[in-house]
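re: that complex we talked abt at group meeting.

here r the seqs, copy pasted straight from the sheet so there may be weird spacing, ignore it
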Amino acid sequence: MPENANNSAELKVRSEKRDGAVLIIPAGEIDLTSSPTLRVELKRVQADKPARLVIDLSAVPYMDSAGVATLVEAMQAARKSSTKLVLCGMQDKVRSIFEISRLDAVFTIVHDQNAAMGN
Amino acid sequence: MKPVHQSSSTSSTTPAASAPEGEDRPEVRIQITSNPLYLSGTRELVAGVSRRLGFTEEACSQIALAVDEALANVIRHGYLKAPDKPIWISLYPTKEPGSSGPFGDSCQACSLRIVIEDEARQVDTSVIKSRDLDEIRPGGLGVHIIKSVMDHVEYVKRPAAGMRLTMIKHRSSSSADCAASGSGNGGACCAPANAKDRPHA
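got the structure back, here u go
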């Protein structure tokens, strides 16, 4: 097994508050191994019921259905707390799984952070 | 991840022992344990092999995604997250009929058959199906994704134990594949035409 084969286990998730919104920036592959890392961080920030939650996926080169399920959970929690959840920065590979799952019309997906922050 | 070496001491439930008589040998076969840690390396391997066989980047990504989803299903639903159970992944590239070279002059491979086998609990294949996508909920998308990106998907119970999933991706399913190969005969260059294109039970 190559040394970098466990990239998915090395998902890093950064979060910051900006202009009244919470910005989540995962970096790395999101799959069955790494999705719990994202789920934990999302639950942590959603506990405060932010008005807007932006997830910047520009540093996510790969996502499988486990990652999608994590974001669906976040969307359901956002609806309950009246949080506006926005995804941005999707790479083509990641966008395709949303399209295959017909979730591209369910999520609010915009091009970049600026658009996601409502600027 | 470790290569599987065929030998007379092979377990009675390994793919080598359970393969139907006359089955062709895979050109790549690996065995992993049911630890999600190895998903990333496995999909990198599958994508890399697909790339070298001439599939487009989009097709390589789709093939790797299908394998990833299939393995995740085995780990979660078959082995119930036990991390030390065996899973075999076998790749069978299908060459162009009548080609002179090992992979033909126009297409490096016409299709790729991927077989994933396990020793997990057997399930009724009729219940393995895509879920209603109008129902927005987490989970249950794996089978839908696999069936969406692959040209042929078939689940069967293995004779000894576990399940066998056969997936086929044709290069002809994307006209860009053949156009990129410069074959000049369009989608026909990759049309399945021999027995190897058909999955076996």
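couple things i noticed - Chain A touches chain B at residues 1-2, 5-9, 29, 31-33, 62, 64-66, 68-70, 72-73, 75-76, 93, 96-97, 100-103, 106 (CB under 8 Å). Helices of chain A lie at 35-46, 65-80, 92-100, 113-116.
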